[in-house]
């Protein structure tokens, strides 16, 4: 069987949709259970929402390592597979699982020790801190499983199989949605069925169980193998430094970019916390809403990155360009529709998560100001697939540093510390950062350095 002709022949639009739609559906459902988590947590208290929000912001600092290795693996697997080098593709998949698991264990140990001091940086409210710790410690304990579950799904997509990861994500998402109310409340809301009354800890427990399910199913598929590729247990216990070095270095600019972005999120959250718990709660809900909005973009992004990587492996530059541009167009259409809906119905969206009128009032303005920026983000992510597919990830780093640290953070500092401006300026700082990021990604795409980059 010629593995190359699956995504690199025929109509590129049809191939992109074939890869992207299943991935998009899987990610959207995953975002739904993130939103359901926040809806249930909102039924506990605004302090619980604030605690989960603060932990989630800190937790994404940890996820940088996952992004570094994951981004590297996309370039390595797709380009090897595009060259029809199945043996090397298999070895890269094995090394990704083994190396990322080892990194996750070390990270989980270190971060668990540092978790409470990090959380204390954001709040001295005992209820908020307790909620963050209840939610956080168990998430850290299962970090290796979380990293590995991402890897198995990414590997399958890179090989051109988008449907299997979609099915896995649907199963794990449904499990999380079902388990949430059972674990969190003394009675399942709307029924007389008794629950386990674990509160915020129950939400975290439901999440980690769904992650374990996702990993087991994906790992089984890779181990069983198919006509594309089959991993071996032996390969998981042999570190290959030549590959592992590339897993660390190719995605390093993306990792630093994520670090700078997440550090800016930490700083932003610190500035936001100056406005009080209600604003932090609104931002936490907003984060889940925008995470949901990004899931379709992620689906298109992953599908396009796979095709771009395989096209570059086969030295088909035109197909890579066409794929990136078409993915940007799809993103603009999707985000345009979503933006229109959010601007018309912000209050109804906020009320899904919480009944506190003060939080809803803050959230209304936030939703209306921030959602239009999703259109620019869609273009940036679509064009940026050429960087992920080629392994030329420096543009992401440049865009993040300039947009977050040269634009957003200074706006936040002067708005809160010097001029004491209203909270709406916080929301506009996100828009300003997105505009700058869009401009930088567009310029770097047109420069074309990525066209000659191979890993």
Descriptive overview:
Belongs to the multi antimicrobial extrusion (MATE) (TC 2.A.66.1) family. The chain crosses the membrane at residues 39-62, 97-115, 135-156, 168-185, 200-223, 267-286, 292-314, 326-345, 365-387, 394-413, 419-443. This is Probable multidrug resistance protein NorM. It holds the Pfam family MatE. Keywords: Antiport, Cell membrane, Ion transport, Membrane, Transmembrane, Transmembrane helix, Transport. This protein is mainly α and 455 residues long. The chain has one domain (3-452). It is built from 16 helices and no strands. The longest helix is centred in the first third of the chain and has 37 residues, at 46-82. It is globular. The protein starts with 11 loop residues before the first helix and ends in an 8-residue tail after the last helix. The model is unreliable at 1-5 (pLDDT under 50).
